[in-house]
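Notes to self, Bifunctional diguanylate cyclase/phosphodiesterase:
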Amino acid sequence: PSLEADLGQAIARGELTLHYQPYVDIAAGRPVGAEALLRWCHPRLGLLAPDCFVQLAEEAGLIDDIGTWVLHAACHQARTWRQRGIPHLSVAVNVSAAQFNKGNLVSAVASALAASGLEPQALELEITESTVMHDVQAAIGTLRKLKDMGVVLSVDDFGTGYSSLSYLKRFPLDSLKVDRSFVQDIGVDPDHESIVRAIINLAKTLKLKVTAEGVESTEQLRFLLHEGCDRVQGYLFGRPVTSEGLEHLVKQRS
Ligand code: G
Ligand code: G
Ligand code: MN
Ligand code: NA
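result:
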């Protein structure tokens, strides 16, 4: 069978799973949430990362179903964590361009929140720049509906896309996530350091929180602290792990 045919069966066969990577709030001094990262336990090929199948899912028209599954699983997991001794933990979910632009995102989010009983403030949606810039008017409408529900909205991979600053101000956003390609070069490339500094300052001007992703070294962390970054995420604080692994890690560091 083709990979596409396999993917069509993956949800029903229970082959999709989520790994979770913590993000740390500098002021709180502890993990305040975890990003859900999709994995497919393929019966023959083993554990596959989204790079191997998200595009295929979009082409095959399966991305809405998968995205809906991810939202339900992530909200359910966050609700479970919050009931099991980590009441402050949020979950962040990556939203695909296809689901955002022509799909059922608003209703899928509403139904995942209702089914899980998770507070909307504990769900963060990560949306890339190119996704929101595809159709700005429609994006503002979608983001407004999500914001009115109380969900937290972030721009993922910020700095790699082409968002116009004037639009950025019109989107009802809560935070920017600095793309890890810039964070990686802290201490290496002064131009990329300047970009990180500029994004942090831009976020502050727009009254948005700013997260640095891909933080791997204490040198990078020191720079980010000095520049006033609000949240950090990366291998320095934890790799993506199973839900049990995440719970264990967070309970150790809280
Ligand atoms: O760990 P990692 O290999 O999971 O992630 C690779 C890429 O896949 C990242 O760009 C990430 O945003 C994306 N990704 C991870 N999980 C999901 C998901 O549930 N849905 C979508 N659409 N993308 C995801
Ligand atoms: O595009 P998005 O930000 O959703 O991508 C998340 C991806 O980044 C996942 O594949 C995750 O495994 C990866 N990632 C998270 N932290 C680090 C890090 O510190 N270093 C590297 N190289 N990759 C990371
Ligand atoms: Mn992300
Ligand atoms: Na990112």
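- The chain has one domain: 3-253.
- The pocket of guanosine-5'-monophosphate (ligand 2) is lined by residues 21, 37, 94, 156-157, 180, 213-216, 234-235, 240 (CB under 6 Å).
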